[in-house]
What does this fold into?
Amino acid sequence: MGALQYRWAASSVWFLLVLMVAASCAPRPQAEPPAAEPEPEEPRYGGVLTRACIYGDPETLDPIYATRVAAVMHIMQIFDGLVVFNAEKGVIEPELAERWEVSADGLVYTFYLRQGVKFHNGREVTAEDVKYSLERVMDPDNASPHIYSFKSIKGAEAFIAGEAEEVAGIQVVDDYTLRIQLAEVDVTFLWELADVAGCIVPKEEVERLGDRFAEQPVGCGPFKFERWVRDSEVVYVAFEDYYHGRPYLDQIVARIIKEPATRELEFEAGRLDMFVLTDPQYVKFKEHPEYRDYLIEVPELFTRHIGFNCQREPFTDIRVRQAINYAIDREAIIETVLHGKAYPALGWYPPTNAAYNPEIEKYAYPYDPDKAAELLAEAGHPQGFTASILTTSHPAWGLPAVEAVMGYLAEVGITLKPELVEGGVLRDQANEGNYDMYIWSYGVSHPLLGLMSFHSMNWGPPGNRVFYKNDQVDALLDQARRAVDWDEMIRLCREAEVIIVQEAPVWFYNYNKAVMAYQPWVRGLKPIPTDMDYQPLHRVWISK
It folds into this structure.
C-alpha cells in the first residue's frame, strides 16, 4: 500500500471512529409512550333494535298458552316471574321475589316479593297476583298446556280436578310474602316457576280483555306491548317504571321474516340488527369479511331426534328401534345437511346441560348398517318394513333431514314415507299418538325436566310423546324428583339416561349449534343455551 493510500485509509478509520463516538454521545430519541387503553364503553339509552322472528307469528302472547319459541321470545320481554333461569350460569336467580327460603324438608317455600314493582298499567304487584297467576295456569277451564307444571303443590290435583276452589298449598301471608307448600319434594319446582307458565299477570286486565289478552298482553316485565301486526311484526317499548331500571333501548321491533334469504339481505343492508343463522348461512358468515367477528355461538339445550311410537308395531320391539339408530350415519348428515352446524347426539343431554355424562359414549350407536340388518332380521323383519314419519319443513330438523335419513333406512329395507305438516299439527298428532315416527327438536333447562318426557305418567301432551314406559326409568326419575341433594339428583338422571339410550325410544340426531349474527353497533347480547332467541334485551344497547 502506498503512503497516500495508507493516509486515506487511516483518516477513513479515524472518521468512522469519530462518527461512532458522536453517535454514542448524542441524545437518544425518546420511545413512543404506550398507546392508552381505550376507555370502556358505557351503555347508552335510546335507539330502536330490530330483530328477526324466524318462526313466524307467535301462537299467542298469553303465557299460559305459549309453548313455542315464536311466542316465548316475546313473552319473556313483557312478563316476569318470581324467579328467573340464568341460562349462562345454569342457576335460578331472584326476579319478582328478591329472596326465598326453603324448609329443611324441602316442602315449604317462602317468597319475599320486591316492593314497588309495577304492572304496565301502573298498579303494584302483590302476592295475591302471584297466587292468581299460578292458579290460572292450573284452572281446568283455561285448558292450559302447562296445567300440570305445578302439580307438586299441595292441593293442586284437587284444584285441577275441579274439586276445590283454590290451591290449598298457596298461601298469601301479606302483600309481599307468599308461602307455597308442596305435597312432595320436587327439585324441578323453581325451574317450573322460572318457565313461561310462571309469568305473573294482573287479574283485572285478564278479565277486562278476555280472549284479547292473548293479543294485547299486560305484564310487569322490562318492555310494554305496543302492537302485533300478524305476519309482519311485534313491537314493544321500554317500560319506564321497570323495577330493575329502565331498559337501554327505546323500542324493539321484532320483524316476522320466515324466508332465510330475506333475513340475510335485510341484515346485510343494515335493516336488521341481529338474526339467528341457518345452517347454510353459517358457512358464509363464519368467513364473512365484515361479520365473522360479530357472531355468537353456543351449544343449545335442544336435542333433535326422531321419536318412535313405542306403542305401535313394529316400534314396540326394542331391536327395531336400535336397528334404526345403527342404520343412520348422523355425522354425515350433520356435515351434508347442516353444514357442520351441530354436534352429534350420543344421548339425550347436550354438553351444556348440568347432567351431561361424558361416559354416555359407551352406550351410543355408531353407524353400523350390518348390525342394523342383523337386529331387523332378529325382530322378524329381514326385508324391512314401511313406516310414515311426521315432519315439518324446518331446514335443520325437518324434511331435509328426513330425506337424508330415508336413504340410509332404504339400505336396510325400511321404506320411510314423509308426511309434511305444520308444527302445531305435528305436536297435536304426536300428543294423540297418531303417528309412526316424527322428527322434532326438544329442549329443557333442568336436567330432570328434560328426562321427564320419558316418564310413563307423562304420556301424550305432558311430554312423553313417544309413549315409552320402563318401570326402572320411572322409579329413578321419581327418586330424582324427591332428591333434596343436587348431586344425587344428577346421578339418578344419568342412570336413567343410560337405560333410555339402551332402549332407544328415539333416534338421537344432534344438539344444535346456535349462531347469531349482529351488527357492530349492538352491545350486550349473550350466548344463551336455552335458545339464542331468548336474549335478555333489557340489557342490550346500541352504541351508534
